[in-house]
Amino acid sequence: MKNSISTIAAIITLLFSANTIQANSIKTTETGFEIADSSQLQTVYDAYFTVKDALIKSDAKLTSAKAKDLLDAITAVKMDKLKSDEHTAWMKVVKKLTADAKSISTTADLKKQRETFKSLSKNTYTLIKVSKSGETVYKQYCPMADADWLSKEKAVKNPYYGSSMLTCGNVVETIK
Known about the structure:
This protein is mainly alpha-helical.
């Protein structure tokens, strides 16, 4: 009789443990998808910001290298892991984002890189408005270049003119 009670107790403990493990596994999977959704696009945003920072430094070689990183981040996005609205926005801009990143990465002409960055910024803005970055992002505008860009800092550092007009521009929108 003692053995039967011990066996039943062991089975109940085993079943309870298995259910707990399965429940934790499901929670982890759900959370994993949420993290994958936001981190995929966050990687693209972070790479965009490094391209912007290289342009601020007026370093064409660094800009080219950072645009290559951006291109890698864009091609690594798994569309089936995106939320519905992100997927729709992604489909609208992915070809242009890819073309712009490729164009910037394959030229050492700073003027051409900056001109292409206008389009890159416009399309990144379209995407970030839908998906939201993990942090506050500022849309900034330069009247001299008649172009916008995105920044993680509120202080204006102009990627279109670098040190020659570093603070030309203003914040036109805060995206949270």
